[in-house]
Amino acid sequence: MNRLRLVFTSLVLGGGLGFFFITAATPPDSAFLPAAPPARADVWKAPVEAHCGVRVVRAYPHDPEAFTQGLFYQGGYLYEGTGLYGKSSLRRLDLASGRIVRIRRLSPAFFGEGIASCRNRIIQLTWRERVGFVYDLRTFRLLGRFPWEGEGWGITCDGRRLIVSDGTDRLRFLDPDTHRPIGSLSVRDREGRPVARLNELEFVDGEIFANVWQTDRVARICPKTGRIAGWIHLPELERGPAGEGPNGIAYDASGKRLFITGKLWPRIYEVILTPLAGPPRSRETGGAAP
Asked: Which domain holds residue 201?
């Protein structure tokens, strides 16, 4: 009996030590590496004001003439809204090939801005034309339009509300059916300073991701308080010859995949976040329009 106890005790201790060494060998950034969805449930969570870079998992072709203003992923496809007068459009893309599966072109009088999916519809903003459009998700048939005060920049949906940016530090909430304002939120950094030029938006696992126009940064915003939860820095990604900055964020919620692109960029990048000790040196980017 004593011998059996000794053997049992040795197995338990040996297994425990083995587990300890395996755990100790795990790299500190393992939470940011690809894994099965359950293990990546908290992939975006980090301390307040955390700084993250990105590591490219895969690059996909992207139309280098697409002036990207909005992006989302749904049902195996990417949907893209493009801007510029005379070139604005709504597109459905095959991710792997970059092929345009369906396209609806806007009148030359409209400068297309952000797009969002909500209840089998696509909502698309315009920049200065004070109007938004509503399309059928599958066919792109125009279902209606609604008035919009001020400039339209980015838009996303949290499942209950539309969230819209207008180039200031303020995000506005809209009723998804009437498109009327139902609230707003001022975005502030840790020191309480307003963060303006919020552009393309994406709702990612309970946070609002926002490109900050003319920078290489994406802000991670708490939708309840407006506080910046962290920054994502994108200075190393290849961009188009015009040097336009990032302005497309899409999230595959079921696959836990994050996609990034920009205006006139030749590629769409699938990325994962990697922790940084602090903010890297970033280059300011220019552009003719938000």
From this structure: 48-276
